[in-house]
Amino acid sequence: MFEVGRLVVKIAGRDAGLKGVIVDVLDKGYVLIDGQVRRRKCNVIHIEPLDKVVKLPKQATHEEVVSALKAEKIEVSEKKAKKAEKSARPIRQRKAKPSEAKTEEPKKEVKAKKKDVKKE
Amino acid sequence: MVSGRFRSRTFRRVFRKTPGGRTVLHHVLRKPGKVVCGKCGAILKGIAHARPAKFRNMPKTRRTVSRPYGGNLCSKCMRQLIKNNIKIE
């Protein structure tokens, strides 16, 4: 029932309800699926087989799977590539805390004054 | 004497320590019940239950489960629904 090229529907997890194809049969009870679902190893009890089988080589690439599914009128939406640069806006530099600046200045002044007094 | 509406048990009673060290009685509205599956009525896991205003301010991951029908149906009922939809097609 779970052979390479079998159309399946995922019934568990965040990909539930999405269609895909079995790309490879791994260990006992596990298959590799691809298509609308993310390409990954999957337990057989987490997928529901459909009555269609597509001709696909073992370990077919994602592009092959997408074209095969298109023939079955199953559209696979591609993920957009992440943008390299986030935004043109300059990154704000953190200002020094006003409390720190205030405490540092008077200390120095006081020390200088004391030295001045001793010298005199 | 507390206000009349606080004398009923509509409000939950909570003992709070004040900064001054006194213990005072606060009256807090009760939490709503746990979220249940819309089909079988089982308690849904991973979904917080709080007063609507607090619930809205929570992150989305605490309000739902990242799954189709997450936060409305339990996983078993969701699977059954998807299987039935396949058969109809």
Describe this structure in words.
The complex is a heterodimer of chains A (120) and B (89). Chain A contains two helices and five strands. Chain A is of the alpha+beta class and 120 residues long. Chain A has a domain at 6-71: SH3 type barrels (Roll). In chain A, strand 2 and strand 3 (30-35) form a beta hairpin. With 89 residues, chain B is α+β, with helices and mostly antiparallel strands. Chain B folds into two domains: 1-30, no CATH class; 32-89, no CATH class. In chain B, strands 1-2 form a two-stranded antiparallel ribbon. In chain B, strand 1 (11-17) and strand 2 form a beta hairpin. Chain B is elongated and about 65 Å long. The model of chain B has no long low-confidence stretch (mean pLDDT 92). At the A-B interface, loops of A face helix 3 of B.
Q: What are the main properties of this structure?
A:
heterodimer; A: 120 residues; SH3 type barrels; 5-stranded antiparallel β-sheet; 27% helix; B: 89 residues; alpha+beta; two-stranded antiparallel ribbon; 2 strands
Please provide a brief summary of the model:
Chain A has helices spanning 62-71, 98-119, and strands at 6-10, 19-25, 30-35, 40-43, 47-53.
Overall pLDDT score of chain A? 81
Largest sheet of chain A: 5 strands, antiparallel
Strand content of chain B: 15-25%
Give the low-pLDDT segments of chain A.
none
Number of strands of chain B: 2
List the topology elements.
The complex is a heterodimer of chains A (120) and B (89).
Chain A: E1 6-10, E2 19-25, E3 30-35, E4 40-43, E5 47-53, H1 62-71, H2 98-119
Antiparallel strand pairs in A: 1-2, 1-5, 2-3, 3-4
Chain B: E1 11-17, E2 23-29, H1 52-57, H2 60-63, H3 75-88
Antiparallel strand pairs in B: 1-2
